[in-house]
Request: fold
Amino acid sequence: MQDLSLHLMDIIENSARAQCGLICITIGIDEVKNIMSFEVVDDGVGMDEETLYSAQNPFYTSKSERKKKIGLGIPLFKENAERCNGVFKMESTLNKGTRLYAEFEYNHIDRMPLGTINDTLLSSIIGHSELDFFIKVFHIFKDKQTKEFTLDTKEIKSELGDIPITWPDVIMYLKDTINEGIKNIELEEF
Amino acid sequence: MKTLADLKAIREKAQKEMKLRNANVRIKVIVGMGTSGIAAGAKEVMKTFLDEIATRSLTDVVVSQTGEKGLSSMEPVVDVVEEGKPRYCYGSMNVEKTKRVVAEHLVNGNPVKEFLISTEE
Reply:
């Protein structure tokens, strides 16, 4: 993975496969505490303790059809976070859902760039139009000033009524909304 | 700044368009978004599909994401599903190839044979 937006994409896909209805994503930069953090919470099938532990092992996959038992998504993300003096946490309750949290030291020399997080968010929303997303992106500056952007697809869908969220003009709207929102809170790469 | 009022305008315009055209989904495009797909560039492929659908206003095409299906060496993998037609599977996709698939297959109905890795009846 070349940047953090790709890791995030991968983690969101895990949630989408867990038969959830809602995915809450929080991305944040806190310059006061010097951290960049990612949180993905779903209300999917969840995992028991053993599966939760195994998921962090690269030689485990939940896919029974796989001959070679490899699943690198979570272990790679974990390794990247820990290499940057970060934190990696996964919590899960069977039939309730899963929460994944990864934290990076913001100015760590090995921290990967954030990447095009706007594309990750738009792709996930349209690519999983049957799911709801609640997205929050925040930036706390050195002087403690805070800027925030939120997007709730439930709200958008109810406004759209019988028009699907995958409609071309709606894709355009979401793209502009996300791009503007992220630009306004001055995430470094934008 | 975009607001929910803009959405209302979009909805009204879309409702009119739906009446004029047959607004049923004609083609489903499925982009493999497993770990290996993402590492191989599936995100850029997905973004290109979304951009093309939005700018060309392809109201009868829906693109979605799925996990991988064991074709890691051929990633990024894209399936094109249309009722009454075989399931076309494209492999080793990139931005340029995606633009050709949109123009030649989705719009004009001619699968791009050189990028196909399988065709299932």
In short: The mean pLDDT of chain B is 92.
